[in-house]
Amino acid sequence: MDLQFKTGKKHADAALTAIATAFGDAFPDHPHGCFVLGSYARGTGHDSSDLDVIVVFNHRLTYKSKKQTDQLVPAIKTALNVEVDIGVCSIDDCPPVWSVCLRAGHLVSGVDVQPPLPAIEDYVTALINDVVSLIRGLRPGRKVGSIVDYPDPDLPLYGYEAKPLRDSAGHWAPSTKALSMIILLGRYRTARLA
Questions:
Q1: Is the pLDDT score of 155 beyond 70?
Q2: CATH for 10-110, options being 3.30.460.10, 3.40.920.10, 3.40.50.150, 3.40.50.720
C-alpha cells in the first residue's frame, strides 16, 4: 500500500501502512479515511514520539462494526514497535476535539472524510473535559477539585511523568506527554476565551 502522506520516518510510515492495511482488510466495503495527527503530521516526530492516528468512517458505525474496531485497535497496537494512539469515529459522531484536530492532520490512506466543525461552545467544553480527564488519569482514586496539587510530589517531575511511552525500538520510558497535553489544552482554551 502506498501512503498518500509520508512522515519521512521509516518506523512511523511502516506503522501507518500497517494500520491502514489492517483497517482496509477489516472494512473493505466501508469507506473510511486514516489520518495522522500530532508531531508526525507537523514533521517534528522523532524516535520516541508516539503516533497519533484517527480513522474516520463516512457512515455511522453499527454495533457490530464498533465491536470489531474495539478488537482491532488493541491487536494493531500490540503488533507495532511504536507507541500509537488510534481513535475511531464516524463522520456523524466524531468528538469535537477530533473534528478540529483533523484539520491539522494529513490523510494517509482512504477517502478524505472531514466531519463538520463543532460549535465553539461544544469545542471548549470538550477541551475542558479532556484536560480534567488527563488530570484524573494522573491522580487515580483522588478527587479532582478546582485547585489541583501535584500527582506525586516525591517523583522527579512531581508525578507528571507517570505515563510511559514506547519508543521505536520498543523500549518503555517515562514521558511528560500528559503534562504537555494539559498545558497545551489549557493554553489553547485560554487563548480561545480571551
A1: yes
A2: 3.30.460.10
